[in-house]
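To illustrate the input format used throughout this study, we show a single complete record. The first block contains the structure-token representation of the backbone; no residue identities are included at this stage. The design step must infer an amino acid for every position from geometry alone.
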């Protein structure tokens, strides 16, 4: 029987990433994601996904220079953002602003320089809109800060604490890429028509906006808030499980065992133990929840997913909830552009079939109705 939503259908071959939900593996170009987060920065990992190799010293410096140059918002893009309705959600702002970037310089085929530009622009768009809506002046990007540090600086107005920047960088590395998900598929479908990279990215952003794909981990935030106020993780979690409530941040529709992204994030946070109360609370909550889940639901193998620790990080750095999905988008731009670049190397337009399930009717039937 045919599955809805193309589930189980192979749509493309890729060498960018492997998502193995049965064994709990996530590989970036063959490398385990845990090893990547231990040894490489956001910029180096982005370069790896685009080029298939890590940058040397001169290449690293060139990439940083290109990112710095492309972080600056031109006056026309600022004007576009300023004229958008005040009530427009931030994902729609990003989609519209990126769409306005589409000029004749973005043709077929896409280039890595274009990918770098779009990756550099998204954090600046987020920061510009966020500070304008808060009545604060926009801060120009700082060339001395790395990609994630600069993002936090432009939003908050101060250089971030090292522990916060490292935690967010780890999260953003882990969300750079995740196989043929809905937004990546949307980007590749658009690119398959030989449309430009901006159009493909706009398609992906529109797809990410949907709550079934890029939804913010607000449920996890609520759980951590409740536990913080009660001061007793076991009491709160046990009562929820007795009432049959779903424990937010545990279980994943793809990973049937541990989420490798959650494991990598947890390992980084363990090194920061004692440096932030919310990160410590998240670690204690996970230990308690996993033990209680095994007690209440034996054999279900319910573990933390990446959203759980993402929520703890966002809470620790005091990031507003409206910034969660946009921040996810800022990192995933790398994966989207890597897939579009790959699509362009051996392109074939996507043209799946549909199965008609309606009746056969005559003109007389239609006219009668």
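Output of the design step:
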């Amino acid at each position: 029987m045919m599955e809805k939503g193309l589930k189980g259908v192979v749509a493309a071959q890729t060498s960018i990433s492997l998502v193995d939900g049965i064994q709990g593996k996530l590989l970036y170009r063959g490398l385990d994601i845990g090893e990547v987060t231990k040894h490489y920065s956001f910029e180096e990992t982005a370069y790896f996904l685009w080029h298939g190799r890590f940058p040397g010293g001169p290449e690293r410096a060139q990439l940083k220079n290109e990112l710095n140059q492309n972080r600056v918002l031109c006056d026309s893009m600022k004007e576009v953002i300023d004229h958008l309705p005040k009530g427009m959600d931030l994902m729609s702002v990003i989609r519209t602003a990126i769409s306005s970037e589409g000029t004749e310089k973005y043709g077929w085929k896409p280039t890595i320089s274009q990918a770098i530009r779009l990756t550099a622009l998204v954090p600046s768009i987020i920061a510009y809109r966020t500070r304008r809506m808060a009545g604060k002046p926009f801060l120009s990007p700082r060339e001395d800060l790395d990609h994630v540090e600069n993002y936090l600086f432009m939003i908050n107005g101060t250089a971030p604490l090292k522990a916060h920047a490292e935690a967010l960088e780890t999260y953003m590395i882990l969300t750079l890429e995740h196989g043929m998900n809905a937004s990546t598929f949307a980007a590749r479908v658009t690119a398959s028509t030989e449309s430009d990279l901006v159009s493909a990215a706009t398609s992906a952003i529109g797809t990410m906006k949907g709550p079934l794909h890029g939804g913010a981990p607000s449920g996890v935030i609520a759980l951590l808030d409740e536990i913080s106020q009660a001061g007793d993780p076991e009491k709160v979690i046990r009562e929820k499980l007795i009432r049959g409530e779903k424990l937010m941040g545990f279980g994943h529709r793809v990973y049937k065992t541990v989420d490798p992204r959650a494991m990598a994030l947890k390992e980084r946070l363990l090194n920061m133990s004692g440096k932030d109360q919310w990160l410590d609370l998240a670690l204690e909550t996970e230990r308690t929840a996993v033990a209680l889940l095994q007690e209440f639901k034996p054999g279900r193998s319910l573990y933390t997913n990446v959203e759980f620790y993402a929520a703890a990080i966002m809470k620790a750095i005091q990031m507003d909830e409206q910034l969660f999905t946009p921040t996810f988008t800022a990192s995933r731009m790398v994966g989207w552009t890597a897939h579009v670049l790959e699509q362009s190397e051996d392109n074939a337009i996507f043209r799946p079939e549909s199965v008609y399930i309606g009746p056969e009717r005559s003109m007389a039937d239609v006219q009668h109705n």
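Structural context for interpreting the output: The mean pLDDT is 90. The two ends are 33 Å apart (CA to CA).
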